[in-house]
Amino acid sequence: MSKYDLIIRRGILVTPHDTVQADLAISDGHIVALEPELSGTCKEEIDARELLVFPGIIDAHVHFNEPGRTHWEGFQSGTRALAAGGTTSFFDMPLNSSPPVLDAKSFELKRKAAQASSLVDFGLWGGLVPGNLAKMAELAERGVIGFKAFMSNSGIDDFAAADDLTLYEGMAQAARLGRIVAVHAESEQLTSALARRAQTQGRTGIRDYLNSRPILAELEAIQRAVLFAGETGCALHIVHVSSGRGVSLVAEARARGLDVSCETCPHYLTLTEDDMETLGAVAKCAPPLRSAQEQGALWQHIFDGSLPMVATDHSPAPAEMKTDSNFFRVWGGISGCQSLLQLLLTEGYERRNLPLTLIASLAAGYVARRFDLAPAKGSLAIGADADIVLVDLRQRHTLQKQALFYRHQRSPYLGRSLRGAIVSTLVRGITVFQDGQPAANPQGKLLKPSSLPA
Ligand SMILES: NC(=O)NC(NC(N)=O)C(=O)[O-]
Ligand SMILES: [Zn+2]
Ligand SMILES: [Zn+2]
């Protein structure tokens, strides 16, 4: 008879294909059995009757800002928030930390900081900026998820936007290294000219900011990035797409055979430009929030499969950077990494009948496949890492400030009624969050994509 470390009994398992009541056994940090009624013995058992057993969420886009700007967030506070929300892996963006991750040395600094304080597993994005092309190989060697470039101003002086030549040559190099390029796709020309004109004319309110970043700026940049990716044979990922037409451009490119994908964020799916006007700085982001109609188009793309992924773009900053009479000068970035799964359960499953299996794909399964971490990550399957979140769908609560584990307890979702309680979160079989509190010491591991150079 088999002997397991842990059996999770009678939960409703959210597998890639369906939801099914079964037992799940874990040994040595891996899922080793999935059966209606497991007969083996175990050191520990969890009764998960009436609970959902989800694959651990993978958040492909956060800014934890450590080292150097830990007072903005940091791996300890950031990963506590993730674990509280059911997220078991994240990919940290190369910018807002100081130094930004642009070479082997800065990669190692960040890897060490993350390893020391992270409750959950992590991947690291490297940066693609003017002047660091020669460093891309050493970053790939160390295991970056891919290379992140900004097509518009990043808001951070030490992370310059990639001009066309940098993007073109960087994509060619990324293709040689077998790594994906992710872009923040907004036209620098359009956004900076519109922002300058508005501010020169003294138009510095929230509406003025919104008008300075039209959907056209996103579409133009996506189109250019897609064109460059096609020319260079580079795999491309468009981060935080805010518009239905943006998603369509990516879907059309994929239909033509290009290796292109995109993500959107919970805020584009749950907040609108009207909310930005009432909430103010806490809801400022780039691209900005859009109309309710645009939000509807994003949901439609989620249902039809052309929008396969959701990531939070958690990008916090201290309070003083979130207050300015000139809205253009307010830090752009929304704090949301603790609420990803619950927002999808509330606005997706509950409100729109989004299947639980699709939620598991959007925020775990697809992410792991796209960034070459499957089959170890992303799904409840035999042999996979035992990254699991237990959710009680019978519960709901109003999001309160005190419940946030962020360094700065701010969120545009405060006061929202969220469906589902995160009962516990397991990373490789270890319970890292339980009863509303972190339940383990930091033990996060660096995740490296498995793909080899082409
Ligand atoms: N420097 C940032 O963190 N920027 C982020 N800020 C947003 N989206 O408002 C981003 O992902 O572009
Ligand atoms: Zn961005
Ligand atoms: Zn970002």
**Average pLDDT level:** 97
According to DSSP, the number of beta strands is 17
Cα distance, first to last residue? 45 Å
**Tally of DSSP helical segments:** 13
The rounded Rg comes to: 21 Å
Q: What is the H level of CATH, i.e. the homologous superfamily of the largest domain?
A: Metal-dependent hydrolases
Strand content: 15-25%
- What is the CATH first-level class name of the largest domain? Alpha Beta
Low-confidence runs (pLDDT<50, min 5 residues)? none
What does this structure look like?
Homotetramer. Belongs to the metallo-dependent hydrolases superfamily. DHOase family. Class I DHOase subfamily. This is Allantoinase. It is a single chain. This protein is an alpha/beta fold and about 450 residues long. The chain folds into two domains: about 5-55 and about 380-395 and about 420-440, Urease, subunit C, domain 1 (Roll), CATH 2.30.40.10; about 55-370, TIM Barrel (Alpha-Beta Barrel), CATH 3.20.20. Helices cover about 30% and strands about 20% of the residues. The chain has helices spanning about 75-85, 105-115, 135-140, 165-175, 190-200, 205-210, 215-230, 245-255, 265-270, 275-280, 290-305, 340-350, 355-370; strands spanning about 5-15, 20-25, 30-35, 40-45, 50-55, 55-60, 85-90, 120-125, 125, 145-150, 180-185, 235-240, 260, 390-400, 415-425, 430-435, 435-440. Strands 1, 2, 3, 4, 5, 14, 15, 16 and 17 form a nine-stranded mixed β-sheet that branches. A hairpin with a 4-residue loop joins strand 1 and strand 2. The longest helix has 18 residues, at about 215-230. The relative contact order is 0.17. The mean pLDDT is about 95. Allantoate ion (1AL) binds near residues 154, 156 and 313.
